[in-house]
Amino acid sequence: MSAKQTTTARLLSSTAPLAVLVLVFxxxxxxxxxxxxxxxxxxxxxGAVIDILQNGSIVCLLAIGMTLVIAAGxxxxxxxxxxxxxxxxxxxxxxxxxxxxxxAICAGLAVGAACGVxxxxxxxxxxxxxxxxxxxxxxxxxxxxxxxxxxxxxxxxSPKFEHLANGxxxxxxxxxxxxxxxxxxxxxxxxRCTAGLQIRGLGASPTAAAYCAVPxxxxxxxxxxxxxxxxxxxxxxxxxxxKEADVATCGQYLELDAILAVVLGGTPLRGGRANIIxxxxxxxxxxxxxxxxxxxxxxxxxxxxxxxAFIIVATLVQSPALRPRLARIFLRRAA
Amino acid sequence: xxxxxIRLVALFTLACAAGLCPAQDTKPDKSAPTKRLIVGFSQVxxxxxxxxxxxxxxxxxxxxxxxxLKFSDAxxxxxxxxxxxxxxxxxxxxxxxxxxxxxxxxxxALMEAKKAKIPIILVDRGVTVDDSTTYATLIAxxxxxxxxxxxKWLVEKTGGKAVVVELQGTTGAAxxxxxxxxxxxxxxxxxxxxxxxxxxxxxxxxxxxxVMEAFLKAKGxxxxxxxxxxxxxxLGAIQAIEEAGKKPGKDILVVSIDGVxxxxxxxxxxxxxxTVECNPLLGPMAFDTIEKIKRGETVPKFIKQQDxxxxxxxxxxxxxxxxx
Lengths: 335, 324
Hints:
The complex is a heterodimer of chains A (335) and B (324). Chain A has helices spanning 3-31, 48-55, 57-71, 79-95, 101-124, 130-148, 159-166, 174-192, 194-204, 206-211, 216-242, 254-264, 276-296, 300-318, 323-334; strands spanning 38-41, 44-47, 154-155, 168-169, 172-173, 244-245. In chain A, strand 1 and strand 2 (44-47) form a beta hairpin. The longest helix of chain A has 29 residues, at 3-31. Chain A has one domain: ABC transporter involved in vitamin B12 uptake, BtuC (Orthogonal Bundle), CATH 1.10.3470. Chain A contains 15 helices and 6 strands. Chain A is mainly alpha-helical and 335 residues long. Chain B has helices at 2-18, 49-64, 78-90, 107-115, 143-158, 174-189, 205-219, 231-243, 261-268, 283-294, 312-318; strands at 38-43, 68-73, 95-98, 120-123, 137-140, 162-168, 193-200, 225-228, 253-258, 274-277, 302-304, 309-311. The relative contact order of chain B is 0.12. Chain A binds chain B through residues 32-35, 37, 41-42, 46-48, 51, 55, 122, 126-128, 132, 136, 139-140, 143, 151-153, 155, 166, 238, 241-244, 246, 248-250, 291, 293-298, 300-301, 303, and chain B through 3, 6-7, 10-11, 14-15, 17-19, 21, 46-49, 52, 168, 171-172, 196-200, 202, 204-206, 209-211, 213-215, 217-218, 220, 236, 239, 243-245, 262.
């Protein structure tokens, strides 16, 4: 492969998630009436694009945590259930005599982070493969959530807590700003902090990392803890959005969406690299497709097929095996 | 070797902890007097307030009539229900009440019960079996009729002119298919009512809100009514309508099905216009039927639950009576 081809391939890989999102957006804009229309209503922006950013924020949050976990060479299948448990915990605080929104948010975050740390401990101290440890937690967390709520939806009234999902600042939905803030911190962690280097080192080669005095235990617990806390926040946003904690369906299958977002974003599943922004773009691409299909009223039986087809194409475009060939075709066209 | 053992033990403990839901095994109760009826009840699970109300109704009615009820919660899995039926047959219960989780795959289990001369009473959903004599009767609401009732209300309320969007239940689920069919039947005779968008929102409030948001963006000010296959989705849609700066119940009419407590609260607030009650309190009717069968009387193959439509005018009086 020539040097030029390598650079082109690298350029393709770093811009692919953005290119995918732009293409999806263009397609949606061209085919769907009113898609790009944004108006200002009661001090906040209103439109399909805002919906995508707001409704996509849950998977975005999961994807941020998941990127760190995957970069460190692990995987977390439990995030969807952790969402349900955190949402339930927050809702129970809100319906208890305390009724304090800040306390509820702290409880939800703490529950999420604790679940993550337990995942990390199972992996690090007991030596369970991450896929098994978090699979156990995927089942157990929803079980705990159903037990503490008696398997009933928990309704609450708390305007402060509801701001988490429906509040706005500068006309923008609050969840979107939270994603931006947490995403920026994660990028800073990965690119500028020693811990970020250690996370990637651990993912690239656990043995080498241990020889280089990477604090493996601390890093493992940290990435799982962050992932759990992100899931906890996502669960609370989901609950705040509908003013109730729905333990049976909250977060169901979202772990898969989060992993897909990470893959679409160009973070390899084998670990060693972290592309936070890519994951966010991946999550937004998928949400754009969902929202567009809802707006167009695509028959329900077709939606999963269309989503599946999109994911195959998007991952093929980014596959390391296919990329050099694409780069070659690209260069030939250019020349 | 040692570490591997520890890992195995740890894994086993975890697996136990994760699966530590009581199996709710039903042991034969030999001390029961011979005359006391023993009835097995296999329930889908407790996924909604509606289903919990159904379970409670059957349990309460059994207690009232001094019937020994063997309850088995299938946690949404058909395999558990098949196992429960086998266990009921082995215990020689007098009758089995079954709320089937899916439509197919019941032939063998029901045949086994038939051979043991144990009548099966299906509740709230039907089954597809080769030999329909394997079950005694089905007690359920007519989902198609519910769809018709919702549509007729809409025709009357709007004078036959409306632009409607539909929030469907889970794709392929019997209530979703039937509620759509009944609704469309009435619409085909009333051309003034136009259905412009229809999408699945999985019977959940979160999805109902998300899909309604998308509908509002796509069709904006055109939409004058929403038809939701259950109350949860309607309540989600109401939130979406409010966030779009419109008045649900006034700018956009909302009609749904189920009649849960939260729906009545929304009607009292004027945000929901009407709901067709899908009554889960089947206990009395189920045990009446069992007693009839035991007396040797014949019962119809399909006993229809009487569903009723409630609107804002009747909601206030009805709300205190709502138990689910």
